[in-house]
Amino acid sequence: QVQLVESGGGLVQAGGSLRLSCAASGRYVMGWFRQAPGKEREFVAAISRSGVTTIYADSVKGRFTISRDNAKNTLYLQMNSLKAEDTAVYYCAANNYRSSTYSADYPYWGQGTQVTVSS
To answer: For residue 75, is pLDDT > 90?
Structure first.
């Protein structure tokens, strides 16, 4: 059974930084998604099983960095230069096949962690 547990969310001022973590029960292709109130869930970033290949949404490119520590089965999202529009519940997701920007390609999801950026 795949288990994903996010942590690291919180309240931060605009321009600040946060690092999210996601502890996984194994080694998978991983991604981060987010969902703001009243909006659909959107892709943020994804990383290959090895960590060599990463994909980012244009809205976070240059500000967010996805990484992983395979020895710890842990996924990270370093978020810098945060903006009010980054406010959302952030979810980590996993699959056994390939990096994807589509939420439907990820059958496994964490419970989510709230990130709130005050302007």
So the answer is: yes
